[in-house]
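Protocol step 4 of 5: obtain the predicted structure for the target chain.
Materials: sequence only (see below). No template structures provided, no constraints applied. The aim of this step is simply to have a reference model before the mutagenesis design in step 5. Sequence pasted as it appears in the construct record:
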Amino acid sequence: MLYLGRDYTKGCVNVGKKAEMDKPDKKEQGDGLEMINMEDIGKKRKRKKTPFDYIRYGIMLVSAIVFVVAGYQLYSIFHEYSKGEKAYEDVADNFTKKEESTGPAANSGAAAENGGFAKVNVDFASLQQQNPDVKGWIQFEGISEINYPILQHPSDNNFYLKKMYNKEENTAGSIFMDIANQSNFQDYNTFIYGHNMKNLSMFGRLKEYKDQAFYQGKEFFWIYTPEANYRYQIFSMHEVKVSSGYFRTFETMGEEYTAYVNSCKEDSRYDTGVPVSGEDRIVTLSTCTAAGDNWRFLVHGKLIAVENKNAADGSGVPEEIPQEVVPIEAVPE
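Step 4 output (structure tokens):
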């Protein structure tokens, strides 16, 4: 039993008759002292549920479901990232081998500038047995994360958007060349695409070229093919709309191509100090940007050195195949 009212037990140090006589009569009590059963308290407190209660319960249930779904989605995203990273680490380990820095990179001192950068030898014969769409390999000096095979589908520019080099589904996709380009990199403008991944894999680090300080020491990259190794120097980078005139491949020189190269140079976020002309072959790297779905971030590099694997002295350029200018009909999404 619970007594409601003043605490009359205080001061009752003797248990006996006097204590009993000192206790006030419940009937004579003027402050409403009474004994109440605990079950009665529960009954008094109990009330009917209102519509607001059900709304509150519904909100709590929906919130719990959203929390679980969001957690699962985050897990799925990170699982995809991990799977993609592991696959590309494996392909690099199994099909490439680092070599001592030789040729143009060593002669320019790039190896020392970039923390001991070393080119890789790619086993294209074995890699192309797994997938004939492998046409090359890209590696950056100073950005170890960009070290991937280059794919090119015969007819579908979107095929490798969500497929890795082994054609397995993955949000990382592949680094791939535009279907309008020649696979031997002899066009005057070759387009290569890659996702702007949040974990900085694929082309996720290209956006860092927006900062001129990042550019210093990271202005060179290599493209390896079964026939030759090509070294490029970045001369421009900028954001453009997909509908702009930048998405075009050029397989020959001419006034139109010269104007295109000049536009690339003039529209760069900053002056790199790298000279370029209408006689230079270039590679354009394209990735998504936070500016929106209809925008891309482009990085342009000009060809500065060639190591022909078929030449005894390691020099020379593969035979040119002059053709007409080809517009890119469908920029990858």
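Step 4 remarks: Residues 1-21, 26-33, 106-113, 313-327 have pLDDT under 50 and may be disordered. Helices lie at 17-22, 38-45, 51-95, 103-107, 110-113, 124-130, 212-215, 255-266.
Proceed to step 5.
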